[in-house]
Write a structure and sequence with these properties.
Length: 225
């Protein structure tokens, strides 16, 4: 079976509050995007890596990605549009499965990616890396109205791994019905199809705010030891 990776990297990083997208922040001597792509390049099961980059991106072309053999595709307005564009770009040579992983998650471990792929292929159903919620969770606006039992709550991570055709159809349906899709799994759920939860490391954080960037820099320095 063939597997393609899709890395959505077309966001502007508004919540980071900088004047350039967070995927181009440096950790050590490499950008966040390069760290992420190197992790994927070390997954033997991946046949091809597509990166969705904004049309107006002024940074991607300057990276030296020659060792990584990645294909640039054009991103879209929302994350789901970037992923859908990437899937459409591979329509002529479609892979059997696609693995979607945020550019902003450079800390993912290769062993977690491999585990997700193996578990999904064994059970022949799509799935995502996720970690069990650890905090006590409250519902409310100005005051806590309720403590939500956390036994069945998970934090969705990436990668998210689905059969190519299934994900393509689900994302197209979600767009047509104007459904809110913040990850691939939400499109699959809305199509009434199963999403396997595969437990992954909770330090596979998404760099969203300056605090995340500080934490990610520290964790990355520990990983490379
Ligand atoms: N992404 C994308 N295309 C978009 C929006 C987001 O490819 N139109 C990517 C981002 O580059 C990131 C991943 O999706 O790697 C996760 O999205 P998020 O953390 O929300 O990144 P941004 O949208 O860039 O950040 P913000 O929401 O703070 O603007
Ligand atoms: Mg965003």
């Amino acid at each position: 079976i063939t597997i393609a990776a899709v890395v959505p990297a077309a966001g502007v990083g508004a919540r980071m509050g900088l004047n350039h997208p967070k995927q181009y922040l440096k950790i050590g001597d490499k950008t966040v995007l390069e760290h992420t792509l190197s992790k994927l390049a070390n997954v033997p099961r991946l046949d091809k890596i597509y990166v969705a980059v904004s049309e107006t991106d002024g940074y991607f072309a300057a990276l030296d990605l020659s060792a990584l053999a990645v294909t640039r595709v054009t991103g879209g307005k929302e994350r789901a549009d970037s992923v859908l564009n990437a899937l459409l770009a591979m329509q002529n040579t479609p892979p059997d499965w696609v693995l979607v992983h945020d550019a902003a998650r450079p800390l993912v471990e290769v062993s977690d990616i491999t585990n997700l792929i193996e578990q999904c292929l064994t059970h022949q159903e799509g799935g995502i890396l996720a970690s069990k919620v650890k905090d006590t969770i409250k519902r409310g606006t100005s005051h806590s109205e309720e403590t939500v039992p956390r036994e069945t709550l998970w934090q969705a991570l990436t990668p998210q791994f689905f059969p190519y055709q299934q994900l393509l159809t689900a994302l197209q349906q979600a767009r047509q019905n104007k459904l809110q899709v913040t990850d691939e799994a939400s499109a699959i759920e809305q199509a009434g199809q199963p999403v396997r939860l595969v437990s992954g490391r909770s330090d596979n954080i998404k760099i969203t705010t300056p605090e995340d960037y500080a934490l990610a820099s520290f964790l990355m320095s520990q990983q490379s030891k």
